[in-house]
Write a structure and sequence with these properties.
Helix content: 40-55%
Shape: globular
Largest sheet: 3 strands, antiparallel
Strand content: 5-15%
Structural class: mainly alpha
Radius of gyration: 24 Å
Oligomer: single chain
CATH class of one domain: Mainly Beta
CATH architecture of one domain: Single Sheet
Distance between the termini: 65 Å
Number of strands: 6
Length: about 425
């Protein structure tokens, strides 16, 4: 017999079906609650509300588990390429060699952006934030590919739009950075793999080609994988909500980019570096700032420690900590003052009983910020790299929404404004 939960209101009892996921998560199905009772639920920020059923990512914050399509993040980060993980998230299975080769080849054929995009880029001031440029240009792709807005597009047309977006986002991202520093744009080289090609466009000059460091390429590949999806977070929920109106893939992902841009969401690794720089300017005494972090009356917070979802540890942090150490060693910057401060904060968080008791361990944002800084990536580009990594997850979630024919999103509210009142002519207002 199916499990139910009884809700009693005004002497009347209704039964709410209980649904269970494959990992034994349980939920009350309140889909008919308003029709049956006239009531809605109140859940600020949707912290306890499941807005969809999804087969893409499983996250257990209590146990520190993250899996894409059932595969542990630890295995994928160590053994897979980013494009392999992108294929897994979007299409549901790990690709065969033939499938992967075809997928990678199609992406390599669409890395160029329409030349008119350069005219749009020329319209941005050099002071424009790269995330603002990225979101704007991605949204504009709907105008370049107007058929992308059709809900009746064929599977082939859908795949083409997916490939286009994965291929072009690195070019757009690299060009947004080049625009911000006034450097000439570098065109992609399709013989390079996805991550190496992005670094080439980001750091090369017409007179000097960027020399690839395999340790750096490997670390960035891992970071992209670790950021590829994270269940129903703010930006992913935004992509699904916008997509539920049958908005195009480009428009929906652009909305996700703008949600990610918010400092409470994707800007955490940038805040890590800004914190480290502030400590360095103050003299570099980490013990002083550790004491401030422990003082409940002090507004100072250690950025990059603890996580809203993970109550024990961030499984991604364990993976990227090793990569961070390798990058610092390979680039010979392990003794820089800024990174010395980071290491001292990390040591305190891992050994100081105050942080251990509260499980305020370094998270993925702490280590990714350190890696990006060591690589020479400007802080305003950190969130752009987050967006590139998160793109396959956004696409997979958007695609799943359409395939499941989910209804348009329409949250309810509890109205707290004025009750009915009559219009008063301006001359009669006090």
């Amino acid at each position: 017999m199916a499990e139910t939960a009884d809700l009693t209101l005004d002497g009347k009892t209704i039964s709410l079906p209980v649904i269970e996921g494959t990992e034994h998560e349980k939920a009350f199905d309140i889909g008919k609650l308003r029709d049956q009772t006239g009531y809605v639920t109140y859940d600020p920020g949707y912290k306890n509300t499941g807005a969809t059923k999804s087969a893409i990512t499983f996250l257990d914050g209590e146990e520190g588990i993250l899996r894409y399509r059932g595969y542990p993040i630890e295995q994928l980060a160590e053994q897979a390429s980013f494009l392999e993980v992108a294929y897994l998230l979007i299409y549901g299975t790990l690709p065969t060699q033939a499938e992967f080769d075809a997928f990678r080849y199609k992406i390599s054929q669409h890395t160029l952006v329409p030349e008119d995009v350069r005219k749009i880029l020329d319209g941005f001031p050099s002071s424009a934030h790269p995330m603002g440029i990225l979101g704007s240009i991605v949204c504009s792709l709907t105008a370049f590919y107007p058929q992308s807005i059709s809900p009746q597009m064929s599977a082939e047309e859908l795949d083409l739009n997916i490939v286009r977006l994965i291929a072009k986002i690195t070019t757009i991202a690299a060009w947004s950075y080049k625009n911000s520093v006034g450097h000439p744009f570098i065109y992609p080289r399709n013989e390079l793999d996805y991550t190496a090609n992005f670094l080439y466009m980001l750091f090369s000059y017409p007179t000097e080609e960027y020399k690839q460091n395999p340790v750096v390429v490997s670390a960035l590949n891992k970071l992209f994988i670790l950021h590829a999806d994270h269940e129903q977070n703010c930006s992913t929920s935004t992509v699904r909500l916008v997509g539920s109106s049958n908005a195009s893939l480009y428009g929906s992902v652009s909305a996700g980019i703008n949600a990610l841009w918010g400092p409470l969401h994707g800007g955490a690794n940038q805040e890590v570096i800004e914190m480290l720089e502030a400590i360095e300017r103050d003299g570099g005494d980490t013990s002083k700032f550790i004491a401030k972090a422990k003082d409940k009356n002090d507004s100072f917070r250690l950025m990059g420690f603890g996580h809203r979802v993970y109550k024990n540890f961030d499984p991604r942090a364990k993976i990227i900590k090793k990569a961070a150490d390798e990058v610092l060693q390979a680039l010979g910057v392990q003794d820089s003052p800024l990174l010395k401060i980071a290491k001292e904060l990390e040591e305190a968080a891992l050994t100081d009983q105050y942080f251990v008791d509260r499980k305020l361990y370094p998270n993925v944002d702490f280590y990714s910020g350190i890696i990006y800084k060591a690589m020479g990536i400007p802080t305003e580009m950190f969130t752009v790299l987050f967006a590139i990594g998160r793109l396959p997850g956004w696409i997979a979630q958007w695609k799943e929404l359409r395939e499941n024919k989910e209804p348009i999103g329409r949250p309810r509210q509890i109205y707290t404004g004025e009750t009915e009142r009559n219009y008063v002519p301006m001359a009669e207002r006090a």
